[in-house]
């Protein structure tokens, strides 16, 4: 058991490097963007990328997970599954791009950016290319090639970051200071504004797809229509679940603008969106860990399916996952006075109060992902769709209710409530269809202790100062508890059994 957990930990670390480093570099753009753009300008960036997350899910329509599932089924040739999935996603992505280009002005008018229809074209290409590249990257995960996986992701992010710093850090700042030259005069125009963020992303997406080509080069991209039907049947509930899930993740950033637009006006509404979007990024470490874990865990969980001790493995994975999340939660919240400088513009700091709420929400999302193995393993993916749809409906209702009166705080509380309810519903359904002996007492103690230390540590910091000393002591106490629970208790159990 310990060896299996160590293997997952090693894979998580490898995929962590391959996802954390690129995403950290991407998030390193937040200080640049928030320093150069006002809160309402940053709101444009926040809104557009909220749509990206939704549409990438739509264009992959569960095919990543379907690829893992059917490749691991007996009798299925990997190249056939890969070829069928890739050709399907290629076709739908090209149709999407062409459609968006044809209707670009109408879409721009609906988004309330009538003078920037080019945004629609740029993002259509970004979304289409990202959907296509997801399939060869999934193949690399299946083949346990994290280094190659990392090199593609990292290279594309470096292109994105480098172009951002070139256009904004070099061209924009020098232009504003009156220091122009032939390069700046040729490549920079103030009218494009935040569009340079999108242009940089577009170039990076093109670079990523080019880097992914060797993954399927010299591979016979066979296509099987009957197999595609099976893939779609399996993946369609995952698509619905994914769309509903992304509603839970991003709808708040879309609704903030539309629900506050008439009452607060365009500038204030976009400012609220910008503040919320920037402070949302401070939950970066939890998000990065969950992403790294997800990349490693999905193929790992499927590979363990034939192991008779698989449920016990899944339960132990949950213990360690929650322990790490609790540690990250304390590290971010108790050192928030330092971490806030990640956003150098103090105009954004009014939104820091949402950070603990969003961190807890993302922990719940990570727990839900762990639990979701039950419906994927039993081919009961429809239940994942039901849970996600239920969550989406509650998300819509609570956002409509809370945003008009609470602004972005309503969005934050909605996110936490919805993810917590999804965890609860998934647990009870999972225990009925695919029982996993989760140690609820241990999981609850880790979460409970992290919350107690957070509230207690925050109160002590406010009352007596010594912020960093108190934060460090709280984290050490939490680590001591986890060590005692995982190491000492395990040794006691082994001794008693022998």
Report what the structure shows.
The protein has helices at residues 2-27, 29-36, 39-60, 63-71, 78-102, 104-110, 118-142, 146-176, 182-187, 195-216, 225-264, 266-280, 284-303, 310-334, 336-339, 355-371, 373-377, 381-406, 408-433, 440-464, 467-497. With 498 residues, it is an all-alpha fold. It has one domain (2-438). The longest helix is centred in the middle third of the chain and has 40 residues, at 225-264. The chain is globular. The model is unreliable at 492-498 (pLDDT under 50).
Range of helix content:
over 70%
Distance between the termini: 16 Å
Q: Count of helical segments?
A: 21
User: How many β-strands, per DSSP?
Assistant: 0
Instruction: Write down the overall geometry.
Output: globular
Order of helical and strand elements: HHHHHHHHHHHHHHHHHHHHH
What number of domains? Answer: 1
Oligomeric state as shown: single chain
Radius of gyration: 23 Å
Query: What is the mean predicted local confidence, pLDDT?
Result: 83
Low-pLDDT runs:
492-498
Strand count, sense and barrel status of the largest sheet are:
none
Structural class: mainly alpha
Strand content: under 5%
